[in-house]
Amino acid sequence: MPTEPSTERDRVFRFGPFELSEREGELRKSGVRIKLQEQPFRVLLELVANSGKLVSREELRKKLWPVDTFVDFDVGLNSAIRKLRQALNDDADTPRYIETLAKRGYRFVAQVAEIGSGPGEVVEPATGGLQPHATSTTELKLAQDDGAAVSTPSLKRSWLGVLVGATLLLLALGTVLWWRGKGTPPLATEQRITANPPEAPVTAAVISFDGKYVAYSDPTGVYIRHIDSGETRALQLPKDFRAFPTSWFPDGTHLLLSTGEAPSGFLRPAPESYSLWKVSLVGGNLQKLVENASGGAVSPDGSAIAFVRGEGGTSGEIWVMRTDGGQPERVLRASASGPPIPAGQRPWQSSNFGFSLSSLAWAPDGRRLAFLRRYQSPSPFVGALEDKGSLEIVDVKGGQSQVLRVSRQILTAVCWAPDGRLLYGFRDNPSSERMDYDIWSIRINRKTGLSVGKEMQLTKGSGRVGGLSVSADGKRLILVRDKLSPSVFVTDMNIESGQFSTLRRLTLDDNPSLVYDWTPDSRAVLFVSNRSGTYRLFRQAIDQAVPEVLAEGRSILQSRVSPDGKEVLYLAGYNPDAPGQPGNVMAVPIEGGVSRIVLPLPFFADIMCSRNPAKLCLLVGAEQAVWFDPATGKVQPFSTVPPSELFNWSISPDGLRLALVYNETKSKITFLNLSDNSKRDVELKGLHTQGMDWASDSKRIYVTSQTADGSPTVLVVEPSGNYRVVLVGEKAVQYWCAIQSPDGRRWALQVVSGENNVWMVENF
Questions:
Q1: Is residue 396 scored above 60 in pLDDT?
Q2: Are residue 515 and residue 572 in the same domain, yes or no?
């Protein structure tokens, strides 16, 4: 007699990037173990095992909580659900995994597959919903062996399923036809046409006039790709000539290149060295057309090139010249106030915000130019919440521009289709702080240059839109999906080489994670992230795979440990649509708890604190800078350096010195002694600073920068003038900051990387 198979089994469930093992009592994400206490694990197991079904609170109490703990059940279950959402990076308002059914219980809504089983047992995948009944092959075989007929109701249900499916298909087809009849077609599909890995993200792309080719660039060079066949060849350019394509010439054999900053945000030379070049695809001849120019666009008839320039390397003017670089004429000199903007839509009343012009797009008849005016705050931290943009049109012969729309949801990506529609990137969900943009359109009257009809959404996508271009026949639209995102990495120092060791990624999430500080015990980092839709404050131990939420809300920025090490200070309450309203400096216990208001003030750009025995923090805004005591909220003015000159700064942990970079240069660091205002300048030859953070001993700073060839670097710089490189990275990434832990053993690095590729839309 054969041995009976063992009935013992290990149920292993898979959903998204997670696996849940019942026997091992583990939750794993992409193979990495996530720490869960026993009670949250048991709750998750019960929900996953019953995916798609309501599991009531009473059922959970009876099964998982002993009778003698009934009094604490509500608190315990609520705590377990909260910990599960943190572990799964889930959100109660927009759940991807655990849905709350008010006063009833919970339901696991993600698709689940059970992949573990005992010997000889086949486990059907759970799909998170009810499945139509189907008579299995095994059931039919057993029925035939017993001489029994197959159940008639089962056959009827099978035929009923076919009829229901056919009916649903007809209804779907009817819906599509109905929408077409109403003039609102279904959204167009974006099709990816390049497959660049994260190591070589696409930085820019433009389609040829005939719609057959796309020219694109990445950190390794510029390429020409035949869209239909996929055949790709490199454009032969001089060594170390770093450029990206901005426009094709109508002849299809010449390309316009720019040495400025790519739409994806990859750093390029200083604005004053921006220039436009014409290159032949046949002979490879390279011709410089104009200096101090960027954003070049060739007119539809090939007779002119529009570009952006300005005094001192700014981008506040629109110019037009011949395609050989001759007869340059200024079309528009923009001002901060700009053309009349509807009441309530001005971005800031302050005079300290800046602006830039970009995304030039020719009208099909060549009479007008569309462009985007981007109002920029004095701080990059406000920019994380999106500066306001004004979509405008100006006549090529000059004059005041006309405003089509003002919104912080408009992205710097504009093109003009041959049928008169203006296409642009737009973030259609204002309640979300994620950077997911779609393509929208508005029709422009050819005679008046004014918009007619209502705006329409064309596509739905994930990530930013880094540039738009359309073929001359209007059948193909090209865009770059920009998915670059900041993540947190940790490393230590190799004592022998004096270089950073291999970086290890800490935040295992594709959404932005902006790191600012360490906990006093050097065991965890503090960062803000919009992974749940809005920016929240997180703490993550360096030996854990998921973070804990310290503070929830909206528009949470920065995180700095208070001088006494007991609290985390952060900025909250800023409303990009009402920048005149005050925000708050908040504080939350470093171990978690209820937040308190430290200082109600208008929105400030940056905050940094010293450490004991120094007790003050420095708060720098667009027009004011103050010292404040986080314990009492008392403030006193900081007048040593005008706030307008504090472009990039860092205060030493002992509170005695300030390192800063002035607006006019990014290659010189000034060390300021706060006791006597004495200064010492350190010039970084051939390097442009990005982030600065003091070492834990206050004797040196760690500076993130970029070499002349575009490689990201981290340097250690001493006030004496000595500096050395401790890390050089690949050109495909950027380093924003390197923060040393209080014990001096580790560093947290802000690393920006991601997958950028070219996408195409047809039938839009």
A1: yes
A2: yes
Q: Are 458 and 441 in contact (CB under 8 A)?
A: yes
Give 688: exposed, middle or buried? Use CB within 10 Å, 0-12, 13-18, 19+.
Answer: middle
Residues 643 and 676 in one domain: yes
Residue 472 lies in a domain: yes
3-state secondary structure (DSSP) of residue 327 = coil
- For residue 85, is it left (φ>0), alpha (ψ between -120 and 50) or beta? alpha
Q: Are 736 and 727 a contacting pair, CB within 8 Å? A: no
How far apart CA 457 and CA 764 sit, in angstroms, is 10
**Residue indicated by tokens 């690095």:** 749
Q: Who has greater pLDDT, 8 or 84? A: 84
pLDDT at 343 over 70: no
Q: What does the angle CA 463 – CA 469 – CA 470 come to, to the nearest 5 degrees?
A: 125
Backbone angles phi, psi at 43, to 5 degrees: -65, -45
Mean pLDDT confidence for 49-60: 91
Would you state the structure tokens that stand for residue 497, as one six-digit string? 């080489």
Q: How far is CA 367 from CA 246, 331, 370, in A?
A: 20, 12, 10
Placement of tokens 């079309």 in the chain: 331
Whole-angstrom distance, CA of residue 750 vs CA of residue 609: 19
Alpha-carbon gap, residue 358 to 374, rounded angstroms: 8
- Euclidean distance between CA atoms 311 and 49, whole angstroms: 65
Rounded to an integer, what distance in angstroms lies between the CA atom of residue 703 and that of residue 725?
9
Distance CA 325, CA 318 (A): 15
List, in sequence order, every residue forming a beta bridge with 405; answer none if it has no partner.
391
pLDDT of 744 above 90: yes
Indicate if 492 and 615 belong to the same structural domain: yes
Answer yes or no: is pLDDT of 161 > 70.
no
CATH number of the domain bearing residue 212: 2.120.10.30
Query: Residue 43 in 3-state DSSP?
Result: helix
Cα 625 from Cα 430, distance rounded (Å): 31
In this structure, the answer to whether residues 509 and 397 fall within a common structural domain is: no
Range of the domain at 308: 190-333+352-483
Number of domains in the chain: 3
Rounded to two decimals, the pTM is 0.68
Number of helices (H), then strands (E), belonging to the chain: the values are 6, 57
Unique residue bearing structure tokens 């959970």: 60
DSSP state, residue 349: S
Instruction: Determine phi and psi for 449, rounding to 5 degrees.
Output: 75, 10
- Residue reference for tokens 């696991």: 108
Is residue 378 within 8 A of residue 389, CB to CB? The reply is: no
Confidence at residue 89, expressed as pLDDT on a 0 to 100 scale: 84
Collect all residues with Cβ–Cβ distance below 8 Å to 3 and sequence separation of at least 6. none
Give CA torsion, residues 467, 472, 473, 475, to 10 deg: -20
Instruction: Residue 389: count other Cβ atoms within 10 Å of its Cβ.
Output: 26
Biggest CA pair distance of the chain: 103
Phi, psi of 41 (to 5 degrees): -65, -45
Average pLDDT of the residues of the chain: 82
Distance CA 621, CA 611 (A): 21
Residue 136 lies in a domain: no
Q: Which pLDDT score, from 0 to 100, does residue 58 have?
A: 87
Specify the CATH number for the domain of residue 105. 1.10.10.10
Residue 281 in contact with residue 357, Cβ under 8 Å? no
Check whether residue 407 and residue 513 sit in a common domain: no
Instruction: Give tens-digit pLDDT for 663-705.
Output: 656 788 999 999 999 999 999 887 888 899 999 999 999 999 9
Distance in angstroms (rounded) separating the CA atoms of residues 355 and 245 = 24
Tokens (6 digits) for 427: 């973030």
Q: How many CA atoms lie within 13 A of 13 on its CB side?
A: 22
492 and 418 share a domain? no
3-state percent helix, strand, coil for the chain, nearest multiple of 5? 10, 40, 50
The reply to whether 347 falls in a domain is no
494 and 543 together in one domain: yes
Same-domain status, 505 and 474: no
